[in-house]
Every structure is written in C-alpha cells, then in structure tokens.
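Here is an idea for our session: we take a single protein and study its fold together. Start from the sequence, derive the backbone structure tokens from it, and show both lines together. Once you have written the record down, we can walk along the chain together:
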Amino acid sequence: MTLSEQLAGFAASTTYGSLPEAVRASVRRRVLDIVGVSLGALPLDTSRAVIEHVLSQGGAPQSRAIGVSSRMPATQAAFVGGVLAHSLDYDDTHLPSIVHPSASVVPASMAAAQLGGAPGSELVRAIAIGLEVCVRLGMAGYDETARNSEFFERGQHATSICGTLASAAAASVLLGGGTDEIGHAMAIAASMASGVIEANRGGGTVKRLHCGWAAHAALNAAELASRGITGPPTILEGRFGFFRAFLGETFDAEVVVRGLGADWEVPGIFFKPYPANHFTHTAIDAAIALRERGVHADDVEDATLRVASATVRTIGEPIERKRAPETGYEAQFSGPYAVAAGLVGGGGLGLSLDDFTDALALDQRRRALAARVSVFGDPECDAVYPYQFPAVLTVRMTDGSTLEERVMANRGGPQRPLSDDELATKFRDNARRSVTDDVAAEIEDAAKRLDVIEDVEDLVRPTAKE
C-alpha cells in the first residue's frame, strides 16, 4: 500500500475504544488548551478582522466558531478557529518536527463534528488521529543529519502545510468517511497546503492566518471527498507528490508509518507555558531563574543569550529589529525581549499575554534592557536541538560580576510537564480576556467531560458574543 493508503487505513480502523487512555487524556487537555488560547486571541484586531470577513460572506448555518453567536459554513468556522488557535503563538509543539499540530486539527475537527453531528467520543478519536498524522508528516521533513526541518530550510510553514492534510483526515473521519474517502480527502488537501514563514523574520500578521487556512482547506477537502472528488493514492511519495514538491529529495518516508497505531506521539507533544515563539521559552526560564536569584534588571550591564544555531535566525536576526520590536507580536519572536521580560517579571505561569502587548513592546525599560542582549549559536545547545530548545543566559552586572543560567529542557514537555493545575491556570488566564469566570468554568467542565458529551457545541456555544 502507498503511504496515504496506510494512513487512511490507520484513521479508519482506529476506534475510540482502541485509543490508549494516555492519548485520550492528552486530547482532552489539548482541546482545553486550544479553546483557552482561542479565547485569549479574540480581542486581537486580526481576530476581529477575520470574523468580520467571514460574517460578511454569509453562507449555510452549519457550525459555530468560538466567539461568534451565529452559525456559519463549517469551512468558515474552521477558518476562524484555526486563526484564533495560532494567533498568540501559544499553541502546542511537537519536537523534533517543530510542528504545532493542535492549532489546525482541533478547530477543523470541532467544526466537522458539528457539521456531522458527531459526539464527543468521536471528536476525541478524530483529533487523536489528526494529531498523529500531522506529527508524522512533519517528521518526514526532519533531516537527522542537518538536525533541522527541511520545510523550514525552504521557508515553508510545516505546521500549516502538514496540518492541512492531517486535519482533512480528521474531518473526513467525523463526516463518516471510510478508508478510501479519508485517503482522497488527504490527497485533495495536498493541493491546498501552504504557508510561507518570512513573517517570523520580517514582520506582518499573515502567519496568524496559516492554521485557519489549513483548517478551512481540510473541511473543503473532506466535504469534496464525500461528494466523490478523488486524488492520487501516491500523493505523498509519488514523483510529483507532496514530499518531492515541498522537500525535494530530502524526506524520510519510513517515519510516516513506522509503528503506526502502536507507537503514539500524541502524549509527548509539548504544551507552551508562555505566549511566545517556542525558541524563546528556555531564555524566559533562564531570565526568571536569574531574577529569582536576586538579579535586578536595572543592574544588568549586558547579557549574552546562547541558543541552538538554527534558532538564531528566528529569535536573533536581524539583531537590530529583535532588540527593538515594534509590536507585541514582534516581541513574541525576539530573544532579547524574552530575556528582558523574564528579568522584569510577569504573570500567568511566569509570563502571560499581558507581557506581550504593543505597549510593553515599546516600554522604555524593557527596550533598554533588550538593547543590551546579544544572541549567538552555541555548540552545547546544538547538541540538544531540536529535541529541546535549550538556552544559556549569561549576564554581566554593573559591579563587574557575572551570573549564568542554563536551561537544557523545555518546560511543558515530557521532561518538565505542566500539571493539570498549571494548564487550568493557563486556560483561565486566557479565557478571562473574553468570557466571565462562570462561562470559563462551564467550558472547562465540558472539556474535561469531552468523551461523554453528546453535542460538541457545548464547547463553543458559551463563548458566543452577540
């Protein structure tokens, strides 16, 4: 069988009952996390623009999107959901593929479950399948020799590209597709997959749309497959297929299906404790640790942040721009700002959305401190990357003394997991930006009971704004 046939067979044959409990529990936690992140993103200008854009187009009242009172076409609900889920750079990450699987899979699945009338148990099943497929497609682009993703080397956003196909598989499952139909949905979606990541370096907000378009394309692909549109079974490994189109000759086909159905990657996907590019997280941890040791930001003469060399171009280049972000969004991709924010202090689990506002990006104290931070690649960090995103932070004080913190493993991953209480704290901090505490509690309860709820709208309906 071809790769897509094997993935489709896995999707069709995996039942809710056959899922390991660790996978089910992980899905429940990720749904709560994504709904919270989405509520945190609702007040953004870009979120309002996308919702206005969608509502202006009308269409069949099929599914609800977070924060919207009226139903809309399932494709559009998926689009809104994907945009919200990825807009804060607060969504989960798989390593070493460096894909954010939940940001497209969860919104697409929630929209498809409403369209197909699927209960919570089937939503759990579909999300588990979609996450697993997304991670495995992302791993196909991981170059073990170069220790980096070939997608990223080519300027491609692996998250939205792989997420389109994976979300199509999940959506097709929820619409009742069998093996053939799921395979066709993925093959159709391959012609819709896209995403260019220059915005990470050069600015702009277009990256916030990527997972929305992935989820939107996924619903379109699944619905078209259900109506008889077909795609090639060799869509992944074929001469003119997905992998060669995006990765050239540098791809690992075997990893896509190795241990499929037996070895689950889902429970090991990293949660994000901070609303910033994942490459900055250990820098934040190191800065917080120095602050807790008594380092006062105003007494720092200068600082050196050493990280994996492959991450410098995202969080350290061009250094002049990274030292002086103009918006909160740019600050999320800045190593120097991460150090400054960690040293000054914040809320949530250490830093929260309140630390990444446009106003604080322009705050003179933080900017002055960020201007004294240099970012370099480091061989020790290279040896760990991309299984972790380590950092070594060295500060030279005005009295001439030097202090250092080394963080070799990311908080939120298997080595330093977030507890249920910590994830609940993150959810509540995000949710309070759009809903009352009572509504947040209602959503939290529905997410915890996801396996047994009959109507997936229970997760979305309370968030609606008139």
Q: What stands out?
A: The chain has a mean pLDDT of 96. The first strand starts at residue 142 and ends at 143. The chain has two domains: 3-272+424-463, 278-407. The radius of gyration is 21 Å.
